[in-house]
Amino acid sequence: MTKLLLPRNFRDIDWLESKLKNQPEKAWQRLGNARALNLFHEMSQRVPAYKDFLKKNGVNPATIRTVRDFRKLPAVDKDNYLRVYPRKDLVWDGKFKQKSWTISTTSGSTGKPYYFPRQSTQDWQYAKLAELYLRANFHIHERSTLYIVAFPMGAWIGGLYTYEALKLLNSDGEYALSIITPGINKLEILEAVRQLGKDFDQIIIGSYAPFLKDILDDGESAGIKWSDYNLGFIFSAEGFSEIFRDYVFRKTGIKDIYRGTLNHYGTVDLGTMAHETPLAIKLRRDALLDQKLYGELFSHPSKLPTLTQYNPALYYFEEQDSHIYCSAFSGIPLVRYDLKDNGGVVGYDRLKKKLLAQGYDMEKEAAAAGIGDTLWRLPFVYVYERADFSVSYYAFLIYAEMVRRPLQAKSLEKLVTGKFSMRVYYDDDGQQKFEVNVELKAGVKEDPALAKKIQKTIAESLIEQSSEYRETYKLYGRKIFPEIIMWPYEHHHHFKPGGKQKWVTK
Q1: Alpha carbon 292 to chain centroid distance?
Q2: 13: buried, middle or exposed (CB in 10 Å: 19+, 13-18, 0-12)?
Q3: Which helix (H) or strand (E) holds 381?
């Protein structure tokens, strides 16, 4: 089993930080290639389900010798692999009930929930990732820190996985890092800030982005002056716009736009696979100001993905036809696992070269922005919002991000929370309708004038963002504008507190 673990020196944070800053990307890629091939061969011998899967697909493991061979392997996913075989056959040596696990479940937002087991090796792996970014972004080795875990603390992965990683960081006693776990209880979160916030050099809040917006707004209404505290924020579960990041900065007075917030790319299936770095955030923000830069970075002209960096020695990403696959040693080990995410993978050196051809030196830009000390020579993976979070309207797709963006406009931020649920349906006359259910802020009342304002803001944004919507608008005019239904704050029908927001109602 020792082959499956990373080298011991990965536990040495000083060594690891030095390697990330100085070791060329090619060295990380070579290590990732070797581990991916090793993972495949270990699985082909020791995981009963994968052994059978390969046999059914006519794959002889002995013929898989190179990365090129590896990339021709059939992909696995929930439907062709995880739900086909019993859980005991999916784990190492077919030993499920003989081992100890922490088990998390998917939210079920895109189908029937699935239960994923993990062992302490995954908790340790995330702990090292978290240690790296907590030092680089938030200087936890220099500051006393209160980490408020505001992710759900139930059977979902976010809260407990974060707590376990932070506990592992504390086990060596090197950091003045304290943890409190109110989960999604907003009153307890706000009370923790009031009672404990001034006892620490900084507070970090880990939360889903829509829930954090509620925390900030409710806290302000309750008399909390967020700028009185030294704050940082860590997000997970979904992407968000730079408008939202700007909103957080305005509300809280964070001074460093590149280090003050960080979003993860993770799944229950594999854990935290990648995360934003200061460089990734700068590239994303600069791309919004420069169409050529945007075109070099991202494949879709109007959808803004989450841009992260990853270590191929831990998670081995591939991209084929804008689909993302990942291979990793995990509770259920997975090779070429189809994440059902759309996006892309690009190497650090390749991206640097592409951007230089456009006159953009990303390392010089980072140095000028004061984040030159955070550069890691690791590849990037970017991911768009899933097609599951879209509706089909007049034969084209409207993604949740396209509606989320206008609802975060400054003109609406005092009136709506930014949360919504959208659907497309047919009325009694067979006419297709696009409905957006919008959550009002606490104390804001339903008003026809406000509904028109929301409708106009969303429609104008869709006309700007989507060429399909724009052309359809030329044909049908206001007939295709969204129907706006306003709901009181935290109404149980669409906006019940707790868990992830369901952006789409099918």
Answers
A1: 25
A2: middle
A3: strand 380-383
Q: What angle do CA 331, 335, 336 make, to 5 degrees?
A: 130
How many whole angstroms separate alpha carbon 435 and alpha carbon 301?
25
Q: Phi/psi at 433 (nearest 5 deg)?
A: -125, 145
Q: At what angle do helices 348-357 and 25-46 cross, to 10 degrees?
A: 140
CB atoms within 10 A of CB 360: 19
Q: Are 156 and 107 in contact (CB under 8 A)?
A: yes
Find the angle CA(93)-CA(98)-CA(101) to the nearest 5 degrees: 95
What are φ and ψ of residue 70, in 5° steps? -55, -40
Q: Strands 231-235 and 261-267, how do they pair?
A: parallel
Q: What are the start-end ranges of the H helices in 47-76?
A: 48-56, 67-70
Rounded Cα gap, residues 468 and 473, in angstroms: 9
Residues in the chain: 506
Tell the burial category of 118 from Cβ atoms under 10 Å away from its Cβ (0-12, 13-18, 19+): buried
Q: Are 272 and 126 in contact (CB under 8 A)?
A: yes
Tokens of 344: 């892309």
Hey, which residues does 154 pair with through a beta bridge?
A: none
Instruction: With CA atoms as reference, report the closest residue to 50 among 15, 85, 16.
Output: 85
- Bridge partner list, 434: 424
Nearest-CA neighbor of 450 among 504, 411, 406? 411
Question: By the 8 A CB rule, do 466 and 302 touch?
Answer: yes
* 457 backbone dihedrals φ, ψ, rounded to 5°: -65, -45
Judged by average pLDDT, the poorest of 156-170, 289-303, 432-446 is 289-303
pLDDT tens-place string over residues 149-190:
998 887 778 888 899 999 999 887 789 999 999 988 889 999
Is residue 29 within a helix (H) or strand (E), and if so which, with residue range? helix 25-46
Helix H segments across 73-185? 87-90, 120-138, 157-170
Instruction: Return the closest-CA partner of residue 495 out of 391, 400, 417.
Output: 417
Q: How far apart are CA 238 and CA 435, in angstroms?
A: 22
CB 206 within 8 A of CB 234: yes
**Is the predicted pLDDT of residue 392 greater than 90, yes or no?**
no
